[in-house]
Input
Amino acid sequence: MEITWRWFGHNDKITLPMLRQIGVEGIVTALHDVPLGEVWTREQIRSLREYIESYGLRWSVVESLPVTETIKYGGPDRDQQIETYKKSLRNLAAEGIHTVCYNFMPVLDWARTDLLHPNADGTFNLFFSYAEFAYFDIYILKRNGAREEWSRTAIPSPAGEKRDILAEVDALARTMTPEREHELVENIVIKTQGFVSGNFREDDEAPLEKFRQFLDLYEGIDKAQLRANMKYFLEAIMPVCEECDINMCVHPDDPPIEILGLPRIVRTAEDIRWFLNAVPNPHNGLTFCAGSLSAGAYNDVVAMAREFAPRTHFVHLRSCHIFPNGDFTEASHLGGRADLVELCKIFESLSPSPLPSRSGEGCAQLSNDSVALPLHGGAGRRPLPFRVDHGKTMLGDETRGYNAGYSFLGRMYALAQMQGVLATLHHS
Output
C-alpha cells in the first residue's frame, strides 16, 4: 500500500517537508479555497500538484471533491452541479490525479461531541456521547420532532444495553452551562466541518440558523430517495470516470447511525452492497474507513474488509472503542474494534490489477452476500493508498492549532505503528 497523509493545503500548520521526513509518499488533499459548487480548473490543480511535487511527494488522492447538497437531495440545479463535477473530474485526470474520495452524508461530514476527551495516559481523543448529541438536537437545535425520535431510538451497543436516553438528556439539562452549550455547537457544527470545504465556516455568524436551513432541504427525503439520488449521481459521472480512469470512493457515514432525522445510506455491509450493485462499474468504489465502520456495534469490520477489498480504492486506518452503553471514542491504532493488523494483511495482500477498459467487461453483478469484481488499480497498476486517520492529541498537539482530529504527533505516532505492522508483514 502507498503511505499517504491528509494535508490541508498551504495554510496547514503541518508542512510538506515535515511529512517527507516521516516517510509519507503521497498527499491526500483538495482545493480548499475553491467555493462549493465551482469548477476546479486545470490551472488551480496543476499549481497545487507542482507545489507538492517540488517537495518530492505526489498528489495521490483528492479528499474531497465535495458533492453539493443539491445533488444529494435532488435540487433544481442538480444536473448543472453534476456537469460542474464532471468538469472538475476531467481536469483532475488531465493533471494525473485519478482517485477521488467523497461522501454522500446529508449536511454533516462527521460528528463528535468532544474533541479533546481525556485518556488515562494523558492524551486526548475524539469522543461521541449519544446523550450530549441528543441534548444538542432537542435543547439547542430545537428540531421539530427530535424528542419523539430519540424516545424510540435504540442505541447500538456491544452489550445490548438499553438506555433511557431522554432521562439522560433531561438530567444533562439540569446541569448544562452556557459554556458547554457553546462548545457543543462549536464541536458539532463548526470545528468538525469548516476546514473541509463544507457547508460551515469558522466565521459564520448564525451557524444554528444556517444548520436548520440545511436540514429543511431534506424534508421528505427518506433512505430510498437518498439512495436513488446517489445512484443518479454515480450513473451520471461514470462515463467520465471510464474515459479518464477516475476511481470514485465513497466514505462511510461517520458515525454510522441515523441522526437529526436525516437518512444515512453508507452505514452497514448491506448499504455498501447496495451502492456497489446499483452502479456495478469498478470505478464506483469504497473508501474503507475502518474507524467509521468500527463505530457501529453491528459491523464486523474484518469481514467487511475481506468482502469489499476488490472495490476498495482508498483506506483510512483508525479504530474505535465502543463503551457498554454505546458511546464511542477513537482508540489506539493497535486497539479498538477494527483490528488494523488484520486489515493491513487483507489490503496488503492484494496485487493491483488493471481495470477493464469498459464497465461491462469482466464486471459481474454482486450477489447479496459477496463481492467478486476486479481489484483496484487501473491502467497504471496504481498501489492502494492508505492514510492514518484521527490520531491522538498528545505532547502539546492541542496547543498548536491543528484541525480537529488531525494532530501531527498523534498521527505520526499512529503512522509509525502502521509502518511497523506493514514492515512485519513484508518480512514474514
In short: The two ends are 16 Å apart (CA to CA). Residues 37 and 68 are 6 Å apart (CA to CA). The longest strand covers residues 58-63. Confidence is low (pLDDT under 50) at residues 353-380.
